[in-house]
Amino acid sequence: MQMMWVGLTITVIFILIAILSPLLQNLGLLQNPQEFLSNPIHQAPSFKHWFGTSRQGYDIFSRTLFGAQVAWQVVILATALSLIIGVPLGMVSGYLGGRIDKILIFFMDTVYTLPGLLLSITLAFVVGKGILNAAIALSIAYIPQYYRVVRNHTVSVKTELFIEAARAMGANTWRVLTRYLFLNVIQSVPVLFTLNAADAVLVLGGLGFLGLGLPPETAEWGNDLRLALDALPTGIWWSAFFPGLTLTLMVVGLSLLGEGLNEFVNPKFRN
């Protein structure tokens, strides 16, 4: 439980950062993350620029905070798309069985065997840059995970007596799926949602580092790490340190939250 609370605390902090960043900018407390400073020469961290400035003339503190907003936008879109597609397919496949089940299993297993980052890179080439496009590229890799979890639960639950009783009372397939099966098979989805969110942050950073995720001027941690490559050999360590540290903290927070939820939902995993 302690692990879950630590992860929840870190996650809530990043949610607050994402919400408050535009407000802080409107109050004049943050620079525009896409605006070049009047003095573009890189500066070390100071009271004026807490995280220093980059060689491109960006205020790293502002871009780091706004990076949380961009990360949450992509993560929520990507995981929501995966959930919306994967959960219904898993329920239908597990409940109906037969040829539909075999076709979906073959297709989902094929996608599942592909490395997530490699698949996202390939899709990013196809769909192009942008928040929605990045979310689509990420979501394709997560759909099979929701499908497999929900399908397996559906197969085990559909033989329960309350499902048999519902069918005997005349409930059609749609009613059985939505009223009786859904709430019983959805229990593990929040855990998977949280773990996928952590992975999505990491993959988004990888796409940005490769120049495939979002436009280069967007305040995104992977983009900033790529922009910092040329600066590191000259001793400008802060241009990569702060975006990299922030990305790591968000991934750790979401991972701890997911593992903590898994222990809470599945007591057998507790020590």
Task: Break the fold down into its secondary structure elements and pairings.
Elements: H1 2-26, H2 60-96, H3 98-112, H4 116-127, H5 131-157, H6 161-168, H7 173-185, H8 189-209, H9 221-227, H10 238-265
Helix pairs in contact: 1-2, 1-10, 2-3, 2-5, 2-8, 2-10, 3-5, 4-5, 5-8, 6-7, 8-9, 8-10, 9-10
What does this structure look like?
The protein is mostly helical and 271 residues long. The chain has ten helices and no strands. The longest helix is centred in the first third of the chain and has 37 residues. The mean pLDDT is 84.
A few lines on this structure:
The chain is an all-alpha fold.
The CATH superfamily of the domain at 73-252 is MetI-like
For the secondary structure, the number of strands is 0
- CATH domain class of the domain at 73-252: Mainly Alpha
Mean pLDDT: 84
